[in-house]
């Protein structure tokens, strides 16, 4: 079937591609365009146009309280989106932009209420893909862009993932191939002291602390905090998020798999050698993501593959609880559920 939303191929670094000119015109007219970033595909709208931004929430089915990240083509435009630009922002922007780091700062009047869900702060970042920055430059305004998926679904790392979720609901998809990083940006709150990570991502607390020369809290993302508390700080951290369509359960290292009916076709995702306790599983699909970098890049693609494989259950054997796996564990915690414990045997009466 021909997709209702056109998909235009584009080289990741061609600032004059005809598709880019078409996309910029659509955005200036209040349209919605999915575009590549180094993390995941974003669903862009003119951040200064409240009607255009409202269409993002509608297309995604996203709660209006969940704020959007604003994308700039460089630090100058990012600074116009905020009312305070502390030394720490300057240092981090110099070091990590363009790149997968979102800075949460007090917002400026350029950014309407709808973008931030009424909050007085805004998340800003500069994406590390040439066409994304060229697009923003052509539009001449910052772009509000959440991940280009239906709310609570897996983020898209390829144009076809966007099309599968949002075909007919948006105006255009720019396809520059699979994204290089594959997990959403680290979200860092610079309004709190010390700075605090709201969403773990490709850049971790140690890297940020090393550049800033002050400690950086990752407490909000800590697995020990109830998910509800994390969600209060950053609504995108709701318990169920990034979920595949197929039921998906997670097993911590050392936990045996639950009893699975013989007719169940299982897709298995492991992070390293197959643990002996999983030896009895006969998965129809097995995906091995041996190290954090590879796992970040292909986690969402792997979950999309499991969904497309026809498996009726996804089993994820969690990677170790180690800082290098924090972002991957964070996403998996929300993409999966803990298997129900077996019912206790009822005494015969
Ligand atoms: O890598 C990314 O960040 C991708 C690409 C497209 O740039 N975008 C992305 O956007 O993941 P989205 O909307 O799917 O996730 C945005 C996250 C949510 O967890 C949201 O709650 C948080 O950022 N966020 C945005 N603005 C915020 C603010 N002012 N305060 C607290 N959290 C905020
Ligand atoms: Mg998202």
Describe this structure in words.
- There is one protein chain.
- The chain has eleven helices and 14 strands.
- The mean pLDDT is 91.
- The chain has helices at residues 18-28, 50-60, 75-80, 87-96, 113-116, 130-139, 159-166, 205-212, 227-233, 292-308, 326-335; strands at 7-9, 33-35, 42-46, 69-71, 101-106, 121-125, 143-144, 172-175, 186-189, 196-199, 248-251, 266-270, 285-288, 313-317.
- The strands form two sheets. The protein has a ten-stranded mixed β-sheet with strand order 1-8-2-3-7-4-6-5-9-10, sandwiched between helices. It has a four-stranded parallel β-sheet with strand order 11-14-12-13, with helices on one face.
- With 349 residues, it is an alpha/beta fold.
- It has two domains: 7-233, DHBP synthase, CATH 3.90.870; 248-335, no CATH class.
- The site of threonylcarbamoyladenylate (TXA) has 29 residues, from strand 5, strand 6 and strand 10.
What is the CATH third-level topology name of the largest domain?
DHBP synthase
Termini separation:
60 Å
How many strands, which pairing sense, and closed or not: the largest β-sheet? 10 strands, mixed
Alpha-beta classification: alpha/beta
Strand content: 15-25%
Level-2 CATH architecture of the largest domain: Alpha-Beta Complex
Total number of helices: 11
Helix content: 25-40%
The string of secondary-structure elements, in order, is EHEEHEHHEHEHEHEEEHHEEEHEH
Bound molecules: threonylcarbamoyladenylate, magnesium ion
- Rg, rounded, reads 21 Å
Oligomer: single chain
CATH class of the largest domain: Alpha Beta
């Amino acid at each position: 079937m021909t997709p209702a939303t056109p998909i235009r191929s584009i080289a990741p670094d061609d600032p004059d591609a005809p598709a880019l000119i078409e996309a910029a015109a659509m955005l200036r007219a209040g349209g919605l365009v999915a575009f590549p970033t180094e993390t995941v595909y974003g669903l862009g709208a003119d951040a200064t146009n409240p009607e255009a931004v409202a269409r993002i929430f509608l297309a995604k089915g996203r709660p209006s309280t969940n704020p959007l990240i604003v994308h700039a083509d460089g630090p100058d435009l990012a600074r116009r989106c905020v009312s305070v630009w502390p030394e720490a922002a300057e240092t981090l922007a110099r070091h990590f932009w363009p790149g997968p780091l979102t800075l949460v700062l007090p917002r400026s009047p350029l950014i309407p209420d709808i973008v931030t869900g009424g909050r007085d702060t805004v998340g800003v970042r500069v994406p590390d893909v040439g066409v994304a920055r060229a697009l923003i430059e052509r539009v001449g305004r910052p772009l509000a862009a959440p991940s280009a998926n239906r709310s609570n679904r897996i983020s898209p790392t390829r144009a076809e993932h966007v099309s599968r979720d949002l075909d007919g609901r948006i105006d255009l998809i720019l396809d520059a191939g699979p994204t290089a990083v594959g997990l959403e940006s680290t979200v860092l709150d610079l309004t709190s002291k010390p700075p605090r990570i709201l969403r773990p991502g490709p850049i971790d607390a140690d890297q940020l602390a090393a550049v800033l020369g002050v400690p950086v809290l990752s407490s909000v993302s800590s697995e020990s905090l109830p998910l509800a508390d994390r969600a209060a700080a950053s609504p995108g951290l709701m318990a169920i998020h990034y979920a595949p369509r197929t039921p998906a359960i997670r097993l911590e290292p050392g936990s045996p798999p639950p009893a699975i009916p013989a007719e169940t076709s299982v897709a298995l995702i492991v992070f390293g050698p197959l643990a002996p306790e999983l030896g009895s599983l006969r998965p129809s699909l097995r995906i091995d993501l041996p190290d954090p970098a590879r796992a970040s890049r292909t986690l969402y693609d792997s979950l999309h593959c499991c969904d497309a494989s026809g498996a009726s259950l996804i089993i994820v054997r969690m990677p170790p609880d180690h800082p290098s796996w924090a972002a991957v564990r964070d996403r998996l915690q929300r993409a999966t559920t803990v298997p129900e414990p077996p019912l206790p045997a009822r005494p015969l009466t």
